[in-house]
Amino acid sequence: MAKKKPANNSTNGQTLREPAEVMFAEELEALVAAEKHPVPTGWRMSPRSVLTYICGGKCGKLDITPKYIGHDRLVEIAISTLVTDRALLLIGEPGTAKSWLSEHLTAAINGNSTRVVQGTAGTTEEQIRYTWNYAMLIAHGPSHDALIKSEIFRAMEEGAIARFEEITRCASEVQDAMISLLSEKRISVPELETEVAAAKGFSIIATANTRDRGVNDMSAALKRRFNIVVLPSPKQLETEIDIVAKRVRELASNLDLQAEVPALEAIEKVVTIFRELRTGQTLDGKNKLKSPSGVLSTAEAISLLANSMALAGNFGTGSVSAEDLAAGLQGAVVKDEEKDHIVWQEYLKNVVKKRGSDWRPLFNACMEHHA
Predict the structure, then answer these.
(1) What does the pLDDT look like over 24-47, one tens digit per residue?
(2) Buried residues in 196-206 as b, exposed as e (16+ CB within 10 A)
(3) Residue 1 is assigned to a structural domain of this protein
(4) What is the C-alpha to C-alpha distance for residues 240 and 278, in angstroms, rounded to an integer?
(5) How many CB atoms lie within 10 A of CB 172?
(6) DSSP category for residue 96
(7) Are 56 and 111 in a shared domain?
(8) Domain coverage including residue 338
(9) pTM for this entry
């Protein structure tokens, strides 16, 4: 069966967000062409080449850009899991690059990262198994033509990897349906008196948010079907700044934002504010802080800076100013008007105001927006 190809409208510039296999096609093709190590069944390249693609390195004269900045050993464990018959579960706080890593792993391994089930409260069992074209079903009865296969179903047929985003947001009966699927590695279709066994290479990469544990926590039985890799938040300020700066540059190029990429000093200020409010203390550990209700993750910092660039490009000078950053900070921090308003005001007056002349323009701009 021919593998599904993701839609590609990049030639006419109409694609809002290209999948990883399109954005980094040159790197992927170079790694495939230069492959010297054994390639598992169903994979396009060896585990070593997948690691190079994810963590960065060289392929001949071509520089492979790092897609995940963090612990290489965690990536090695994730890749090794996918070589076996075990599914992979990536767990972490918001903004720890779970979905990003999941997308790039499938792009490198299969060349298609678009086989995705997005977990929500409304996700049904049919969305992970199959459903029917009911017009054809009523007219002609059950048939292969009337069968609408889920992305997981297609991945099983093709011996590929499917992604299951935010699995803990799904109802318990949907999660339970995954237990038999991961255990038996087959989908039964009673209406057609048949079943489909997974081809070699099939696996699932699921993600779960530690902040959402109370939504629909996974059962012990389901957890046992996964190898679990916990992705930590960046421990060092410099690491988080590198991640944010890299992603902001990529977004600026992809979205054609008509503004200059913020200076490293501006990125450092945003990341510092987020880290301090997130951890509840200043970076030097001397002052305890109240934390706002929102999730001030690395992903939120990236989004804030991209929005600041959009403001600067469309309604400013094209260079991100303190006023542009302040507008984004207000929206990112103050989610609950009653509680977060006080937390943000105290932080501005007790921390930012005392940091000297370099921080003064941002403090003044924030106070104006906060008024």
Answers:
(1) 999 999 999 999 999 999 999 999
(2) bebbebbbbbb
(3) no
(4) 13
(5) 12
(6) S
(7) yes
(8) 237-370
(9) 0.85
